[in-house]
Amino acid sequence: MTNVKVNSVAKTYGTTPVLADITTEFPEGSFTSLLGPSGSGKTTLLRIIAGFIKPDQGVVMIGNNDVTDVPVWGRNIGMMFQSYALFPHMTIAQNVAFGLERRGIKGAEARKEVDRALEMVRLPGFGDRTPKQLSGGQQQRVALARAIVIKPSVLLLDEPLSALDRRLRQEMQVELLRIQRESGLTTIFVTHDQEEALTLSDKVAILDKGRIVQIGEPETVYEKPLTRFAAEFLGDSNFLTGTVENGAVRLADGSVVKSTSALPANGSTVTLAIRPEKMAITSGDTADNSIKARITTVIYAGPVLSYHLETADGVPLKLFAQNRDGTVLKEGDEISLGWSAEHTVAVAD
Ligand SMILES: Nc1ncnc2c1ncn2[C@@H]1O[C@H](COP(=O)(O)OP(=O)(O)O)[C@@H](O)[C@H]1O
Ligand SMILES: [Mg+2]
User: Fold this and answer.
1) What is the CATH number of the domain that holds 18?
2) Taken in order 155, 197, 202, 10, is the CA torsion positive or negative?
């Protein structure tokens, strides 16, 4: 088990900065997701850690070793990508043994390690088959066995599950987490799937345009987003903009919204983020905050009702409500929403 650190890592292609001064740490034995939209630099950061790409500046540390100038094969890294490309003409055992052979491990010792890895991914006895005798999900497991058989210091996974259908993906998520916990491997997992990042990770790092805008435990990142981008990319969010006045925020319509966040100085403009499930339909002024809105769209999704709303000032809002008693409100209905100051988070734009 080893921790990974990147210090002031930057990469520019031509004149386009792809990673801008990234400094962060992936603690020993932890599972960290790099979450961000396409083009935010996730793969580039992972490939810099792996050694496929040399950063323009900065340092990559694996354990106590500065590996910035160490080639890929000297870094003892296990890797798995979306296109896991098993060698079709080789057996499963030969595929898994590939990395061992390159490290000079052969014969009975190699067989023992291959069996152990296949057991870990729950494919014991599959060694003599060829890849085309396996389902897509099973091939994915073989690719994972191939990555972990070498007992890497670090496991790097670049959207390994995104080609799988939903059910298989969920199954593999559970397996991946089990294997990570059993092996204790420091794991860095690239995904653009927010649910996957939240459910699997000890820590989620949100990337935007080559920067880590926030890194933290899933709950912290979700409940207390630091920026508008983080609030929008990880989950859904409502935004209200107003002016700070005596420790609260006055909206354009004159109403006042309370927040437990630290607010900037009086007179500053501030954006508040409120998760749609934190708002509730209220009849009186029982909550810290309330606002009136008109329903513009009703989305019936079974257990959850999703309402799109608009305030008198034309601010769009979303509300997620549990379908407790089967009551479905209608488009055009005027409602009052209430929510707490604690769930009103000041975010940077
Ligand atoms: N070899 C390259 N040459 C030029 N631009 C590149 C190269 N690799 C990646 N990029 C650009 O860098 C940005 C980040 O890419 P990438 O790290 O693959 O993002 P992600 O994995 O988050 O989708 C993208 O705009 C991409 O087009
Ligand atoms: Mg990518």
Assistant:
1) 3.40.50.300
2) positive
